[in-house]
Structures are given as C-alpha cells and as structure tokens.
Amino acid sequence: MSVPALQVDNVSKDFGRIIALRSVNLSVNPGEFVSILGRNGAGKTTLLNIISGVSRPSEGSVLLFGTDPSDHDNKAKLAVISHEMFLYGNLTAVENLEYYAKIYELADATQRIQEVLNDVELTHRRFDLVSTYSRGMTQRLTIARALLHQPALLLLDEPFTGLDQHAIGMLISLLKSQKELGRTIILTTHDLHTAQELSDRYVVIAKHRIVKDGVMAETSPDVLRSEFFSAIGGEDDS
Amino acid sequence: MRSTIDKSLLIILLIAFLGCMFLIFSWVPPIKASNAAEQIAQRIFYFHVPSAWLGFLAFFVVFCSSVAYLSTRNRKWELISVASAEIGVLFISLVLITGPIWAKPVWGIWWTWDTRLTSSLVLWLIYVAYLMLRRYLPDGSKRANLSAVVGIIGFIDVPIVYYSIRWWETQHPKAVMASGDGSLAAPMFFVFMFSLATFTLLYVYLMRKRYQLLVLEDLVNKQFKEMEIL
Amino acid sequence: MMRAALAILKKDLRMEFRSKESILAMWIFSLLIFVIFNFTFEVSRLVMLEIAPGLLWVAFVFSGMFGLNQSFALEKENGNLRAMALMPVDGGQIYVGKFLSVTLIMLMFEALIFPIFIIFYDLQLSLEMLKLIPVILAGTIGFTSLGTILSAVAVHTRNQQILLSMLLWPLVSPIIIWSVTLTGMVVSGEVTPAFYPLLLRVGAFDVIFFTLSYMLFDFILED
User: Fold this and answer.
1) What's the pLDDT band for B178 if we cut at 50, 70, 90?
2) What pLDDT shows up at residue B211?
3) What is the number of other CB atoms lying within 10 angstroms of the CB of residue A46?
4) Which residue, of B12, C98, C119, C202, has the fewest CB within 10 Å?
C-alpha cells in the first residue's frame, strides 16, 4: 500500500477556553472521496484548517502525502472550496485566474485557464469584471479557481451552502470527474443526500470527536440518517 | 504551596511598603532646594522612577514571552504576555500621574511636550493599543499570534521612540543615578534602592496573581465547555 | 523568487488603476486637510512656512492610513486573506507584495498632491527641492513597512480603521518626527550637516521595520 494521502494521528486542537477537536484519527487513501458529516461548530472546519496547514494542532500529528501540511509542496497540491470566494471583484475572470496561475507557478497557464473556464461555462464572460457576475456565476468561477492548478487533494468546506441549483449540479459533476482522475477529495457537509451520492466513505464528527467511520456503499440512506442524527443528538437543527 | 508563596509575598510586600513610607517621608533628608514645595515634591521621585523602571521591565517581559509564544505556541506564554502588558500599562500610568504632580509645584505646569514626557506617553499608547487589539479580537490562536507580533514590534520600537524624541531639548531632570557629581547622596540612594526593590516585589506579586487568575478563567471556561459537550 | 510578490503587486496596481479609489480618495482627503487647517488656524505667512512641513506629513500620513485600510479590506472581502494563507509561498513574499503595492500607490498620491502643496504654501521651487525626494521616499517606506503588517493585524477586527490608527501612530512616530525635521530643513533652505546622517538614520530604521515585518508576517496568516 502506498503512502496515504492524509494521515491524521490523534489530533486535538484546544486553545485556552476553546475546544475544537479531541483526539481525531483519520486516514485517507489517494483517490478516496470522504465526507465529513456533522453539525455546525462540531469541529469540521477546524479539521480542514489543520489539514490544509493553516492551523496547527495542539496535539498529535498530520501528514499530507507523507510530509508536513505546511510544506509548500503540499500547499501547491491542495485546493480549498468554501463559502468564501477567494476572488477579486475588480478583476475579470481571466485576470483572477492569471493571478492564481502565477502564484501556483503553472507552466501552461493560458491553456489551463481556457480549460477551467470552459468547464464551468464562463468562457463567454471571461473578460467581464467579477463584480458584474451573478451569484451563481461567481460561485462557478470559485470552483474554476480551485481546480486551476489540478490539485491532488480537494478540501470542500460546506461547498453547497448558498449555491444555486445550476452551480450545485455543475459542482457535483465536476467532483465526479475529479474523482475519476484519481484526485483525493474530502468534503464536509450536513447534506446527507449529496454525501451519499458522491462519497466512498463517511465520517461523523460530533462534540469535537469522530464518532463514526463507515463505508458508504455498505450503508443504506436510512441507516446513514439514523446514525447521523443519533450521533449529533436530535434532528432539530441539522 | 502556591498560596503559601503568595501569602508570604504579600506579607513581605506590606512590610516593605510601610518601610518605604517611613524611609521616604520621615527618614531621608530633604534635598537642597530653593523652596519648600520643591523639597516635598521631590519625594515623589522614589515612586516615579521605580514605576518607570518596572514599566520597562514589564514590557520587556511582554517581548520575551511573545517570542516564546511564537516559538512554542504554548498558551502559558500568551497569558504571561497579557498579564505583563496590563501591569506595565499600570506602572507607566503611575509614571504619567506622578510626573505632573511633581511638575506642577516645580515647573509651574502640569504638562509640557518635553522629550521624556512625550516618549513616556507614546510608550503608554503603544501598549494600550496592544491591549485594545486583544479586546477587539475573539479568543483563539489567531488572537494569540496577532498580539504576539504586536508585542514584538512594539518593544523593538520603544528605544527608537526614545531616541527620536531626544531631538528635542529636555527639561526633565537628568537620570540622577548616572550623573557624576554625586547628586544623589548615600541615604537617598539607599531609599531609592529600597523603593525599587519593593516595586519589583509588587510586580512579581501582581504578575503571579494576574497569571493565576487568567489560568483559572481558562479552567472555568473549559469546564463549562466540557459540561456542554457531555 | 519574488514571483508571488510581483503577482500580488501587479494585481493590486491593476485594481487601483481600474478604480482609482485609493489615490483619488487620498488626494481629496489631503486637499481637505489643507483647507480645514486653513480654516482652523489663522497664521501669518511666516509661521505658515514653519508649520508647512508638519502639515505635509499630516496630509501624507492621514491619507496613507486610508490607503492601508483599503489595501487589506480588499483582501478580507472575499476571504482572500485565507487564500493567501493557503498559498504555497512564504508569508514574507506576501508581505513584500502588499508592501510594494501600498508604497507605490502612496508615492503616486504624494507626487500628485505635492504640486498643490507648493501652490498653497507658495514655496520656492529650486534644485534644493530635489532633496525632498529621498526624504519623502524614506519617510513613506518607513510608514508603509510598519503600516502593511499592522494593517494586516487590524483587518481581523471589526474596528479595523480605528485600531490601525491606534497601533500605527505611536509606533511610526519616530519616522514621522524625523521626516518632518528633514522636510523642514529643505523647505526653509537650511540643509545643515545634520541632514544626511539623519536621512541615513531614517533609512536604517526603514530596513529594521521592513525586516522585522518580513519575518513576522507568516504568523499573521496562520490561524
């Protein structure tokens, strides 16, 4: 077996009065699609921050492709999609992507930019300022930006929140094709339906711990539902 | 153990302060000055100067613990920084209060935009800004990082501020300890050192207490969090 | 090696030239400072000449605050600050990029307001005035090198603007004091032998502030 794409060993994050994660263990193989389920504030975002090397664990260790997540090599292999857009409204789509292409040192920038714009169907608006885009278009551009440098590991933090139907459909089909390309994908969500549709594995986080780690194919939607709600304690604000 | 240390510290402090009062107000001979008001006012020197020294010490501790925090990410160092910054601001506030009390009878004015006065005020402003920054940020590792960065830049800036404001002429009395003409007589020197030692003890005591309180706050908040979780 | 810094610089300048938001606002704000000053203090021409250097730096620095706030508000808007933390580059490079863009924008604004200053205060143009170029350059770099990192700190709070002022003013005061002194020497035509050592000193502290901020910027991006 090769090196796991992600190896989280006994990671805790607490700081002063804040407890965010407690002894989390997670191992993800290359090419795997893992959904992290849990209610808001359970520690999903903290876990993604630690995986992406932005935040440091107070205890335990994280290895990304066998090395430290804050290594530049690792950061170059990684992309994050969240509700934040990471785009500048006063630049056009192409200028935004050119900027990121330079930061990520892409050799074939022009071609890649055409490809991703094509993937998210924004080619016709590529020379317009992002601030003139509709919400859905901005979101599609956010996805294009994340895929620009062909990340080996995609981290998606509640990416479906606030997306319109068109963008959701597009993101799902793009994620499926990313998976076929052998990319590793970690998705946090509380949308069980989408998680079921996309992922190979699921992990439930409740009260800052991983309480369930299961294989999606072996779990029926009903079982997943009941497991999820019993873990997070009630259906009230899922 | 901890409380025994604190208790004995407190008792020593009380005795030392009483000793200070006696030494300053009845034992040490007054300076040779033109008027009585100045002779009385001069005694504030024994509070004013130790406060200033302790203020600097406190900010130096902020600097060291900020560096220690950034290299270890240990909450302990963050709490020490905050405690020391608060106490440092307290001491420099004392400097800024006792200074004008002395200046009014001697110079005839409360305040002048003089070198020492201005730089002490700027110093005070730097660390008030540090404390304000912490107030505006939510607790967490981000706040710890940001305030450590400011704690480091702030302290490195301090000598530069003093240096730059030296350009103006100063009316402020010379740092008497250093002057060669023996202007500080032996009994005065003794009282000054006694007062300095007492203030240092006060700093140590306040630091211990403030730090313990901050740790307790963390502990209580954590307990609440645990109860929520369980 | 400075590829990312240059990419950030290019992006910032492109946005600035497109909207001209910062430069225009800074320019008009400085104009306002001159006008308000004229309303609030009625002084003779001689006195005016004496306080003109201070006034020039008040205008520079107050307007510069606006530029600094703007520069990082832009990064915070769509979570770009987090995007920067995720970039495969050193925090130092990101600092250099932001520093360069803030500095260049401020220098452009200063070049545009300076003629107005000359006209308003009826200063005599001469070759001596060229000595102001290194003075303004050194003063501005000192201001922006500290300003860039402190703006990145302040942007994390809700009261970004007031907090930046509280942090930056006391810390940058040495640079401003010296810059005013140097400007005064040039404007009054009394460049003493103390001029060059003092200018050198400002330059030296620019280097200190820049290096310190360069080293510390990584910690600001980290969570």
Assistant:
1) very low
2) 96
3) 22
4) C119
Contact, A156 vs A186, CB < 8 A? Answer: yes
CATH topology of domain A1-70+190-233: Rossmann fold (3.40.50)
d(CA B129, CA B150): 9
Domains in chain B: boundaries: 2-172+183-229
Contact predicate A41/A227, CB 8 Å: no
Q: Which residue range forms the structural domain that includes residue C101? A: 3-221
Strands (E), chain B: none
Domain spans, chain A? 1-70+190-233
Give the model's pLDDT for residue C96. Answer: 97
* CB atoms C82 and A86 under 8 Å: yes
Question: What is the CB-side half-sphere exposure of residue C20 using CA atoms within 13 A?
Answer: 6
State the angle between helix axes of C91-120 and C195-221 in degrees (0 to 180), rounded to the nearest 10.
140
CB contact under 8 A, A56 and B141: yes
Count of domains observed in chain C: 1
- Compute the nearest-CA separation of C186 from chain A (Å): 40
Structure tokens at A140: 């599609």
Mark out chain A residues that contact chain B at CB-CB < 8 A: 14-19, 55-56, 58, 207-208
Q: Does B7 touch chain A (CB under 8 A)?
A: no
In this prediction the ipTM stands at: 0.92
B139: chain A residues, CB-CB within 8 Å: 15-18
Tell me the fold of B2-172+183-229.
Four Helix Bundle (Hemerythrin (Met), subunit A) (1.20.120)
d(CA A189, CA A40): 9
Whether the predicted pLDDT of A42 surpasses 60 = yes
Among A198-212, B108-122, B126-140, C25-39, which stretch is predicted with the lowest mean pLDDT?
B108-122
